[in-house]
Amino acid sequence: MTSYTPPSEKDINQFIDMVSFNADGLASAIAQQHDTKKILMQAWVNRDSLYKTLATGQVCYFSRSRQKLWTKGETSGQTQELIEARLDCDGDSLLLLVHQNGVACHTGRTTCFFNALTPEGIIHTEEPLISPEKLYGHHPHPK
């Protein structure tokens, strides 16, 4: 695995200044496994979480439900190590190439994108590798 070397603070700030954050101060971030190119998840970043990600190499998002920063894996141990950050042409969406340690989805799957609409109906493209209860001690999103 390639190890992340943080850029200079000047370059980090210049990159963040290129981001077009929405009215809530957020930008969409897609996490993709760097070697397999599998799309893992989508989450939100604000200036602070993006700075923390770029400065440390540990991916940090902004939780809209909790209204605070959360470093991926802080409760589950399923961390994401940044390999490279990319910004789209409009400046409003990031692609984070990461090394995922464990599963990415709170459901215990490797990806959050497991519901597929097919001619046969909606299918799950993969089953959980670990239960949410084992990851968090409880189900994180009761319905």
UniProtKB/TrEMBL annotation:
<comment type="pathway">
    <text>Amino-acid biosynthesis; L-histidine biosynthesis; L-histidine from 5-phospho-alpha-D-ribose 1-diphosphate: step 2/9.</text>
</comment>
<keyword id="KW-0479">Metal-binding</keyword>
<keyword id="KW-0378">Hydrolase</keyword>
<dbReference type="InterPro" id="IPR038019">
    <property type="entry name" value="PRib_AMP_CycHydrolase_sf"/>
</dbReference>
<keyword id="KW-0862">Zinc</keyword>
<dbReference type="GO" id="GO:0004636">
    <property type="term" value="F:phosphoribosyl-ATP diphosphatase activity"/>
</dbReference>
<keyword id="KW-0368">Histidine biosynthesis</keyword>
<dbReference type="GO" id="GO:0000287">
    <property type="term" value="F:magnesium ion binding"/>
</dbReference>
<dbReference type="GO" id="GO:0005737">
    <property type="term" value="C:cytoplasm"/>
</dbReference>
<comment type="similarity">
    <text>Belongs to the PRA-CH family.</text>
</comment>
<comment type="subunit">
    <text>Homodimer.</text>
</comment>
<dbReference type="Pfam" id="PF01502">
    <property type="entry name" value="PRA-CH"/>
</dbReference>
<keyword id="KW-0963">Cytoplasm</keyword>
<comment type="function">
    <text>Catalyzes the hydrolysis of the adenine ring of phosphoribosyl-AMP.</text>
</comment>
<feature type="binding site">
    <location>
        <position position="112"/>
    </location>
    <ligand>
        <name>Zn(2+)</name>
    </ligand>
</feature>
<dbReference type="GO" id="GO:0004635">
    <property type="term" value="F:phosphoribosyl-AMP cyclohydrolase activity"/>
</dbReference>
<feature type="binding site">
    <location>
        <position position="90"/>
    </location>
    <ligand>
        <name>Mg(2+)</name>
    </ligand>
</feature>
<feature type="domain" description="Phosphoribosyl-AMP cyclohydrolase">
    <location>
        <begin position="41"/>
        <end position="114"/>
    </location>
</feature>
<dbReference type="GO" id="GO:0008270">
    <property type="term" value="F:zinc ion binding"/>
</dbReference>
<protein>
    <recommendedName>
        <fullName>Phosphoribosyl-AMP cyclohydrolase</fullName>
        <ecNumber>3.5.4.19</ecNumber>
    </recommendedName>
</protein>
<dbReference type="GO" id="GO:0000105">
    <property type="term" value="P:L-histidine biosynthetic process"/>
</dbReference>
<dbReference type="InterPro" id="IPR026660">
    <property type="entry name" value="PRA-CH"/>
</dbReference>
<keyword id="KW-0028">Amino-acid biosynthesis</keyword>
<comment type="similarity">
    <text>In the C-terminal section; belongs to the PRA-PH family.</text>
</comment>
<feature type="binding site">
    <location>
        <position position="89"/>
    </location>
    <ligand>
        <name>Zn(2+)</name>
    </ligand>
</feature>
<feature type="binding site">
    <location>
        <position position="92"/>
    </location>
    <ligand>
        <name>Mg(2+)</name>
    </ligand>
</feature>
<comment type="pathway">
    <text>Amino-acid biosynthesis; L-histidine biosynthesis; L-histidine from 5-phospho-alpha-D-ribose 1-diphosphate: step 3/9.</text>
</comment>
<keyword id="KW-0460">Magnesium</keyword>
<dbReference type="InterPro" id="IPR002496">
    <property type="entry name" value="PRib_AMP_CycHydrolase_dom"/>
</dbReference>
<feature type="binding site">
    <location>
        <position position="88"/>
    </location>
    <ligand>
        <name>Mg(2+)</name>
    </ligand>
</feature>
<feature type="binding site">
    <location>
        <position position="105"/>
    </location>
    <ligand>
        <name>Zn(2+)</name>
    </ligand>
</feature>
